[in-house]
Specification:
Strand content: 15-25%
Number of helices: 8
Number of strands: 12
Distance between the termini: 59 Å
Largest sheet: 5 strands, mixed
Number of domains: 3
Order of helices and strands: HHHEEEEEEEEEEHHHEEHH
Bound molecules: copper (II) ion
CATH superfamily of the largest domain: Cupredoxins -  blue copper proteins
CATH topology of the largest domain: Immunoglobulin-like
Structural class: alpha+beta
CATH class of the largest domain: Mainly Beta
Helix content: 25-40%
């Protein structure tokens, strides 16, 4: 059975994986047995009672009814279906009832990548890190269209919807790196929307998550800026492709570096680091002509390094466009 499981299915890693596979095998094998009985019986009877030379022509069978056979046709499927039902309900309840002591990780689907938010504040992209032998509660949502979060080795899958949370859970029994797939067609990038789940020993996981927060310290400024650009929702109002949204495109601002920015009160200033910094911290003091003063202040939400990073990212756009 184990060899067959390996051949047909990915590894069984979650606590309920074996149960779900066994239910599948039960339905699969009972279907094969029923199929064999019906089809072989039919072939046997067709041959046995075929028309032979010299037979007298009878239009109906001499047998018209058998209570035993009818009871059999009724009771056997009823038993099989009842077993499937009770087994199915039990497995289903096991999958939807999240243990109280589960670690909660927030998963956000977005065209076309996954973001994972850990209880202590860290974030990873396309890499879900979890401790082994610990229940993990996954709270799912989407930033845009429908996605579906599937971890084959855990035998669990759930849709991700915008404006709504869905929940699933699993408890991984074995350390390793396994696939995560999006199983809801979500646009051109759908097939690339894969991620990995990395199951670690609990102690390793603790260390990993503790590192996460300080991870931002180690990456180059412009990369951190690119991350913050989406993480702090700048992208909801500023595009990177030159088109104006609620605010001017980040690309346009970068291309106007060193040039004059005119404000709605007729005053103007040259675009430089200080101007960008004050645009982010005190957006209401200088409103770019042609735009509404709707940008929220990021005072207190960004530290100095993060401000530097957003500025470095802005400048890197200008360099890219000059190539
Ligand atoms: Cu998707």
């Amino acid at each position: 059975m184990d060899r067959l499981t390996e051949y047909l299915f990915p590894k069984q890693v979650s606590t309920f994986a074996a149960d779900i596979d066994n239910l599948f095998y039960f339905i699969f094998y009972s279907s094969i047995v029923l199929f064999a009985i019906v089809v072989l019986g039919m072939m046997y009877l067709a041959v046995k009672y075929r028309f032979k030379k010299g037979d007298e022509v009878r239009l109906t069978s001499s047998k018209d009814h058998s209570n035993i056979l009818e009871a059999l046709f009724f009771i056997v499927p009823l038993i099989l279906v009842s077993i499937t039902f009770v087994w199915g309900i039990k497995s289903y309840l096991q999958m939807i009832i999240v243990p109280d002591d589960a670690i909660e990780i927030k998963v956000t689907g977005q065209s076309w990548f996954w973001t994972f938010d850990y209880p202590d504040g860290g974030t990873t992209l396309n890499e879900l890190v979890v401790p082994s032998n610990t229940p993990i509660k996954i709270v799912l949502s989407s930033k845009d269209v429908l996605h579906s979060f599937f971890i084959p080795v855990m035998r669990t899958k759930m849709d991700c919807l915008p404006n709504r949370y869905n929940v699933m859970w699993f408890d991984a029994q074995e350390e390793g790196v396994y696939d995560i797939l999006c199983t809801e067609y979500c646009g051109t990038g759908h097939s690339q929307m894969g991620a990995k789940v990395i199951v670690m020993k609990p102690a390793q996981y603790e260390a990993y998550v503790a590192e996460l927060g300080s991870d931002d310290e180690n990456i180059p400024l412009d990369e951190l800026g690119a991350k913050l650009y989406t993480k702090k929702a700048c992208n909801t109002c500023h595009t990177l492709d030159g088109s104006a949204l609620v605010g001017p495109s980040y690309l346009q601002t970068s291309q106007m570096w060193g040039q004059e920015r005119v404000f709605d009160d007729g005053s103007s200033t040259l675009i430089d680091d200080n101007y960008i910094r004050s645009s982010i911290l005190e957006p209401q003091t200088q409103i770019v002509a042609g735009y509404q003063g709707v940008m929220p202040t990021y005072q207190g939400l960004l530290n100095d390094r993060e401000l530097d990073a957003l500025i470095a990212f802005l400048k890197s756009l200008q360099e890219d466009s000059q190539i």
